[in-house]
Amino acid sequence: MKSSKPRKQRKFLYTAPIHLRRKLMSVHLSKELREKYKRRSMPVRKGDEVEVMSGKFKKQKGKISKINLKKYQVFIEGVTVKRTDRTERQKPIHPSKVKLINLNLDDKRRVKLLERKMNVKTKKTEST
């Protein structure tokens, strides 16, 4: 049984290894993608198209330009803030505040993973 104590949950997040951090950076899928891939969420990756769901930049859409696994941050093109010296920089957003609209399917491994996961889901529903 895992602990539900906030202190232990925070410690787990701060000390999590990279291979687990990638999974923790999962993002909800849009309704269309959810029906197509039969999954609720997926780990986010550079090149994915997302929509910001809450905060100052709500309803803004853009591609992911950078991901910071160490700080659990996603940087989206078009989501910028002006600095005091009048230059612009990208504003980091937590993945829980973002929804995936379009997947980057350039990577063959990601496509194979999606196909495999979809086949497993359909086999489970057929057997019941």
Features:
128 residues; alpha+beta; SH3 type barrels; seven-stranded mixed β-sheet; 31% strand
Q: For the record, what CATH class applies?
A: Mainly Beta
State the CATH architecture.
Roll
Query: Proportion of β residues?
Result: 25-35%
Level of helix content?
A: 25-40%
Could you tell me the CATH topology label: SH3 type barrels
- Low-pLDDT parts are none
Helical element count? 4
Q: What is the number of independent domains?
A: 1
Q: Main sheet? A: 7 strands, mixed
Tell me the number of strands: 7
Strand order of the largest sheet: 2-1-7-3-4-5-6
Order of helices and strands: HHEHEEEEEEH
Instruction: Please state the CA-atom Rg, rounded to the nearest Å.
Output: 17 Å
Distance N to C terminus: 29 Å
Task: State the shape.
Answer: globular
**Mean pLDDT across all amino acids:** 92
> What structural category arises from helix and sheet content?
alpha+beta
Question: Any overview of this molecule?
Answer:
With 128 residues, the protein is of the alpha+beta class. It has a single domain (28-127), classed as SH3 type barrels. The chain has helices at residues 6-15, 18-24, 31-37, 108-127, and strands spanning 26-29, 41-43, 49-52, 61-68, 73-82, 88-93, 98-102. It has a seven-stranded mixed sheet. The protein is globular.
Summarize the structure.
The protein is of the alpha+beta class. It has helices at residues 6-15, 18-24, 31-37, 108-127; strands spanning 26-29, 41-43, 49-52, 61-68, 73-82, 88-93, 98-102.
Task: Explain the layout of strands and helices.
Elements: H1 6-15, H2 18-24, E1 26-29, H3 31-37, E2 41-43, E3 49-52, E4 61-68, E5 73-82, E6 88-93, E7 98-102, H4 108-127
Parallel strand pairs: 1-7
Antiparallel strand pairs: 1-2, 3-4, 3-7, 4-5, 5-6
